[in-house]
Amino acid sequence: MKLSIVMTTYNGMKHIKEQLDSIFSQKRKADEVLIYDDGSNDGTIEFIGKYINNNELNDTWKLIVNKENKGWRRNFVEGIWSSTGDLIFPCDQDDIWHEDKLEVIEKVMTNNPQIQVLTTNVTNLYGNGDKEQSTNQNEKLKKISWKKHIFKVDAPGCVFCIRKEIVEKSKNYYNLEYAHDDYFWKLGLFADGLYNYNRDTIDYRRHDDSTFSVEVRKNRNSEARIKWINMALDYCDDLTNYISDDNTIVEKDKKLSVIKRNKKYLNLRKRFYETGNPLLIFQMSRYKDCYLQSRQLLGDIYIKYISR
């Protein structure tokens, strides 16, 4: 199979060398490495260009500098769409891949053609250099059920492996607000093709100043919550179309019913944030199965009435 890596970068000089080295040192070499830079001004572009030239990688590694700043969401998804591999591996700019990652995942995907999207575990890498392995290293596959919470994503995008077939389907339902990991997780979930492989395949750098972490902290207000709810409602519509259109998807009625219930819950939350009507709290409490966490309803009440 042809293996493609899609990396996005933006002002990543601090850790970029370690990430590039870990890709270059893979036991099973990638057939295509696409690096999409979003307008770095800290030397990242120049460093990557020299790295490719110095290691004579021009045949398989390509650096593409965006003419405009696309933002990390669009940059990743459009990069994935432009890849030509049978298996596509999204890649951050600051992690360290274990040297057998591609070798191991290719074998898993070859032996299990039912898998559309595969994730793995990670070794957490902290700012002081300490590492913490995940607790489960039994190297077994676990299928993720669509009956679990549809908005809960249990793995970062940098440990995804995405089969080309589902990448092609994704072009029909994408919204610019969707993050690549969130999006492909859901597509794999409802195709009954989402699995996790219980083994760490990267050292995953944990830090509080990542773009995503900053966004999460900014979302703790009513306006931001309404924006997220609107995006989630868009997901419901796009997933409904995806399930309805795809003849390979089974149990359509049950899956559409789950999405319909989540849509009702989301509309209730939106009305609560817009109006502050306390009578809606009781109705919202009937949808505890739709909340990401049991205490999230209390969080809604706190943000609306206290935090503002």
TrEMBL record:
InterPro entries for this protein: Glyco_trans_2-like, Glycosyltransf_2, Nucleotide-diphossugar_trans
Lineage, opening ranks: Bacteria, Bacillati, Bacillota, Bacilli, Lactobacillales
Gene Ontology MF terms in the entry: transferase activity
Entry's family note: Belongs to the glycosyltransferase 2 family.
Pfam families for this protein: Glycos_transf_2
Protein name: Glycosyltransferase
PANTHER family xref list: GLYCOSYLTRANSFERASE, GLYCOSYLTRANSFERASE TAGX-RELATED
Domain Glycosyltransferase 2-like: 4-164
Native source organism of the sequence: Ligilactobacillus salivarius SMXD51
Keyword line: Transferase
